[in-house]
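To the structural biology subgroup,

Please find below the input and predicted structure for OsmC family protein, which we are adding to the shared reference set this quarter. The sequence is reproduced verbatim from the submission form. If anyone notices a discrepancy with their own records, reply to this email rather than editing the shared folder directly, so we keep one authoritative version.
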Amino acid sequence: MALVKFNIDSTSQKVTTEVKAGAHTFFVDEPKNLGGNDKGANPLNTLLGSLAGCENYIANIVAKEMKFNLNGINFKIEGALDPRGLMGDASVKQYFETIIIEAEVDTDESEERIQELKEKTDSRCPVFNILKDTNFINIQSTWRKK
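Predicted structure (tokenized):
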């Protein structure tokens, strides 16, 4: 099968980036106290949002295959890093050290089926696997019934 390509175009002014992805436009920015215009989420929150969106999409595909009654998922995702790495301290990692995912699954399915959905979703979600396969980020993921 041929590879599917994904692409964006962006333009930036200072720390504000306008991103065009097909018919969609969004901003990646910083708050005003960090020199931005606060037009959008910062890059790290954008990454965590991409993780939530990807996990949700893949979970819906997997749920259909499993004949799993999935009404929705609410994600709370937290990434933790030491900001000294971003500020140039070469002795400190510049990326998330941990990512904690808490998912509330709106379903009438059993906890065992929820865990099966989680495992299959995690194994197929490209964003989750990009982060996991770095082998540098400790990912803790918990899925529970809402």
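Summary notes: Residues 1-40 form one domain. The chain has three helices and six strands.

Regards,
Lab coordination
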